[in-house]
Input
Amino acid sequence: MADPKENVLMEKIVSLCKRRGFVFQSSEIYGGINGFWDYGPLGAELKRNVKELWWNTMTRMREDVAGLEATIIMSPKIWEASGHVATFSDPMIDCKTCKGRFRADQINDISCPQKPSKMVSECAGEKTAPRPFNLMLQTYVGPIQSEENIAYLRPETAQAIFAQFKNVLETSRQKVPFGIAQVGKAFRNEVTPRNFTFRSREFEQMELEFFIKPDEVVEAISGSVATPAAAGHPGEPQPNWGWQLWHQYWVEERVRFYEGIGLDRSTLGFHIQTPEELAHYARATTDILFKFPFSKVDEQGNVKGDELEGIAARSDFDLSQHERFSGKTMGIFDEELRTAWGKLPKEKQDDLWRRYYQARKNYLEKSGVKPEDAEKDATEDANGLAKGQYIPHVIEPSAGVDRLILALIANAFTEVTDTDDKGKSETRVVMKFHPRVAPVKAGVMPLLKNKPELVKKALAVRDLLRPWMNVYYDDAGSIGRRYARQDEAGTPYCVTVDFETLGEKPELLDTVTIRHRDDGKQERLAIGELRDWLLARGR
Ligand code: GAP
Output
């Protein structure tokens, strides 16, 4: 159980989020709706920055990833193929006395989602046996509410990527290995939404499906398969990488991303899924965790953290499922494989054939295909190698936007105590966001509101910066108060126009004061340099 002191911190964070407009309860004027959250003015900017940084890092800055934006409602067949209709469920139990509904695996660990520090008093009433509860939110498409018109709000963005794999491959002129990235809403009818936005019923995901050659194909082309030699980032991708190196690469790339937006490695944790936790088709999954204020503390006082993102090596399961369910081929043709195969000695061909055949047969049998059909299909698949055909495998880094926003907010939250000349102390909040994600990049202010020349110049500075970044103009109250307001919003820099800007000291004409949020230091900068100075720090 999280330490109560830390839940006090969670309460402070929730209250700041409301007070400053980061996060509001959805439908608050009607008493709210459990598991749904709105982002206020600062939260909306923060979220946009995070999604844009992810998109830029994962697609625009890379040669080997293309983007996709698919619909939320798709053919229900997609969710049959993916396994969500049959198995996407949590074990649910009801209390016969208080009528409470709980996830069986969390029955001893229930906290109030609105007030994470308040434990819901758990009645001792008799509980029902656990039963599976499908998490997909269901609706009807068209005017008739009948069984055949049932559709689902997507529970993950990933499946659209698999379903559109061929279209993207053909239109983007990418070649395996390459990835498809998507950011968008997902919906899960969570039994017990909890820990503020951490487990919501409507949330956003940032997912990459990175398609790679099966190890047998890498071996046929490169002669051998490179496997991880050491911990850490394995460097630039190489043609002989097998799935393990690609998996390690993506874990490390994602950690670099988090570090680049201010989440130090010490704030993160890792969970390597055990064989019992892994889905039958998954080769490995590493979860990147963040040490949230509500994360559990073990007996030794260590905090492992809670999941921000999972990076899964999912074999060729997803494309294979869609191939079987849609009847459309999801395999690709690889000229390099065909040429290499023809040059391989017979024993090598036989060895690779057998391994590929075995992997395909395992998948088919575990997916419910009759053994004789599985043998026939696996034989056909393995024969495809000689023709340069195979179904790509996939590495899936799948991150939650809302969890990351919560992590960034918790990480930024800092209380500082100022003592004035008369010895009076005041504690206030400084949100130490990395400039890259900060909702407002710069506060722009005239030293005094009642001096038209200062106001005019400050507005001109605001207009100069506005096309390039989100800035906030503020002329209300003392300059100290205005700085404090920007500190609480997490604005890394304040730009003040004063009399020196207007030429009181001729050598300082057209310069402004830059005040740094984290240490209060001030420096002078020419207005002409301001934009590039801020962009260099906030991008
Ligand atoms: N396509 C793989 C997939 O969806 P997942 O572990 O179920 O995997 C990926 O979800 C990420 O989505 C999680 O690591 C988490 O950040 C986010 N996520 C999942 N369920 C969520 C929920 N109920 N509320 C907020 N974020 C959630």
